[in-house]
Specification:
There is one protein chain. The protein is about 15% helix and about 25% strand. It is an alpha+beta fold. The strands form two sheets. Strands 1, 2, 4, 5, 6, 8, 10 and 11 form an eight-stranded antiparallel beta sheet that branches. A three-stranded antiparallel beta sheet has the order 3-9-7, with no helix packed on it. The protein is rod-shaped and about 115 Å long.
């Protein structure tokens, strides 16, 4: 019987070279596993394309009001007190003193988005024109509506009258609210400075005609 020949050096080198790719793949896989498990290894920074876009700030409230909701210069019984959170306590609007039967007017041009009853109280809501997306929306309650959903209203146009019941004030008042989407805002910010000036009553300006 012939003695078994030992592999030559060249043959052994070829075998080692054939095993080299397998060893490299194994080492790379082990390093990747350790990097994922080791909290000391910092995570890879996200690319600029993966970063979320910064939030777009909501447009400011324009002073487009041309009339108080009631009267010429009504008494503000309770002012706007923004809540700290969606369900926190606060006053989400402004209460204006007004006796029952007082005419309630739209403060600015818009379209009636709701006119009906909510929890036994009459509510009128007007979506204001050209106030961004989502648009500003004013609400008035308790009001017996004289308009319907979809009606276009002009500044100072009567949308209803104050109801004798349903007010949360000690005396009859109108709760005037302002929202953009689901966020409550200060409705008084709709009024320009000339509406705040004290003095005798004056005629409301005609839309498109400059103030004197």
């Amino acid at each position: 019987m012939h003695a078994q020949r030992r592999p030559t050096r060249r043959l052994r080198a070829r075998r080692y070279l054939a095993l080299l790719p397998i060893l490299l793949i194994t080492v790379v896989a082990m390093v990747a596993t350790v990097a994922r498990a080791d909290p000391r290894v910092p995570p890879r920074a996200p690319s600029l394309a993966a970063l979320p876009a910064p939030p777009v700030p909501a447009p400011p409230v324009p002073a487009i009001g041309r009339a108080w909701p009631v009267g010429a210069r009504p008494e503000v019984v309770c002012g706007w007190e923004p809540p700290a959170g969606p369900y926190a306590r606060g006053h989400r609007g402004v209460d204006l003193a007004a006796p029952p039967g007082t005419a309630v007017r739209a403060v600015a041009a818009g379209r009636v988005s709701f006119a009906g009853r909510v929890a036994g109280r009459g509510v009128v809501s007007v979506e204001l024109s050209a106030t961004g997306r989502p648009p500003l929306r004013t609400t008035y309650e308790p009001v017996r509506a004289s308009v319907r959903k979809g009606d276009e209203v002009a500044p100072g146009q009567v949308v209803g009258t104050v109801e004798p019941t349903g007010s949360h004030c000690a005396r009859t008042c109108v709760h005037w609210g302002l929202l953009r989407g689901g966020v409550y805002l200060d409705p008084l910010s709709l009024l320009p400075p000339w509406l705040w000036r004290s003095g005798p009553s004056r005629l409301l300006p005609v839309l498109g005609v400059p103030l004197p």
